[in-house]
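Tutorial sheet, problem 5. The two components below are modelled jointly, 681 residues in total.
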Amino acid sequence: MPDSSIHSWGLLPTVSHTHVIPLRDRRQTLPSIEGSMLPHGLGRSYGDSCLNEDGALLLTRGLDHWIDFDPETGLLQCEAGISLAEILELASPKGWFLPVTPGTRFVTVGGAIANDVHGKNHHRTGSFGRWVRDFELLRSDGSRRNCSRTENATWFRASIGGLGLTGLITRATLQLRPIVSPLIDVEQIRARNLSEFFALADESDSTHEYTVSWVDCLATGDAVGSGIFIRGNHSETPSDLTWKPRPTLPIPIHAPGWLLNKASVQAFNFLYGHKFSGDYHASQEHFLPFFYPLDSVNDWNRLYGKRGFYQHQCVVPREGRSGPIHDILSRIGNSGQASFLAVLKVFGDQPAEGLLSFPRPGVTLALDFPNRGQRTLDLMNELDEIVMSNGGSLYPAKDARMSGAHFKTFTPALDLFTPYIDPAFSSSFWRRVQENS
Amino acid sequence: MTQTTLILGATSAMAEHTARLLADDGDTLLLAARNPEALETLAADLSTRGAAAVKVLPAFDALAPDTFPELLTAAGSFDRVLIAYGNLPDQAACEADPKLAAKEIEVNLGSVIHLCTLIANHFVEQGHGTLAVITSVAGLRGRQSNYVYGSAKGGLNLFLQGLRNRLAPKNIRVLTLLPGFVDTPMTADIKKGPLFVPAAKAGECIHKALTKCKNDIVYVPFFWRYIMWIIRSIPECIFKKMKL
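Model answer (structure tokens):
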């Protein structure tokens, strides 16, 4: 029975799957079905990398058992369907924290590995894969491999950032990092333009573990790149580590498509940009609102309405040929197509672990665009050209529309990766970027 | 004070989610199931969550009642028992094969009566205890779609009622748990309607019934009390013509 109940975080594309199979026991072999399959965790990928149209999805959330946690060393072994939220609930009261966390804690460990996710501390820690000690890869032929830097090392590198295509990651061992307080010392500093942003990023590189910037995409001319630079460190003053997850606010229905328009985004940006007076604000925040401001609203993606939205996240060299970030931001500012959330961050120099990992030295810019049809696609294609001509790349986990030709250019290790794909595995994303090139 | 809970049918999704919350409380857990290998995954999980101790018991076979005393001896001492195993039979197959129907009654009712009798006597000797049994709202009214299962669960409801009556003066609690539709592997083939709740939610209800509330009969979740009140109020002359 075709099942169209599963969508990605951007709510597009709408596809149906032949089978949706919940997994519960990591010791079992993979189901034998006709057609292809793809692991699917919490579905927080924005585009089609977590979908497999006319194929099967293997729901991994049922693989949610802890295997071992050593509160002395912070070494955690768990099944791959465990979410980062669950890791925080287990480990943070014992003084351990995620070494790398994306902007939502509602992703699985398997998903975090398969997309080699990054966080606000990329300039110091690199991406998620660097903190993975080993994992088990289960293939459709029934074989199991323990993969690490010393054992099945190429399988390890192919599966980190491997978009779930190399087989099912059943369990993993992660190294957590110690904390003595759940609080983050936060500083927010106004940046008036892009050069102020870069100056702040440089200044904070060695002093702050977490840096990120919110950018007003409606700014044009001299103000391009204006926004708020946010930096933080884990508080070093010991305090009570226990906490309870707060109930989240549900968005039960899709908002009307017009809700997020230029005026409302302008209003939001104005309010966000003026959330503190003056140019500098220091505070202490719990790690939840600091890392996961949007997680307090369940299904916030529904605010974009039924038509869904696109994300566009690129990484480009800082100077590039043409000052690519300035170029992209001016292009958006002039287009009138407001991006609600625009996040800018300087990546560090640590080489990523995975063959297909997205993070690389440079600057990354993440943008949301409500789906307004062709003109939205046209704008993103223009942005792709800037990324392309500057030797940058796009993040597959956020993508629903990049061209196959672009993907091939963005992915120099593609030929090295391809032999490691499980013959029974595929995804809508993968077929798309293979076909239209 | 932390408690020791024996769970029979510990691999069932509802039992597993209940056990996780008991582990969070720091309880000791004794796990029994048909396939003890699958319990190793569970035991590691529950220990990591904070259970004081987790013990995997030898394989439990509901159709081998002679082995029950041995199993209870292997378990040692315990304050609570949660009986969570059961089988949802294929109703049509049971209609065609009376032997199959009788076997399903043995799994879902006969074996449970056997166990409850042993456990009740153990609790009487010990002077305290809580016996919690997962039955089903299907046992509250016979319906053509699953009356073999329903009759086993209905019989079980009555048995537990009587046992409660017997044990109430002896400081022993008998808890009847009545789940409605729960999204578990047992119901994998049933189309999921709005009344289905995730196994984790059912686990929360059962954990609360075990540790906090004092009720004897608990619906999982609560709204099934009202649904079943309505279903039970339909006169038989009308009900017999309905397709439920």
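Marking note: Residues 183-410 of chain A form a domain with the Alpha-Beta Plaits fold (CATH 3.30.70.2520). Full credit if you identified this.
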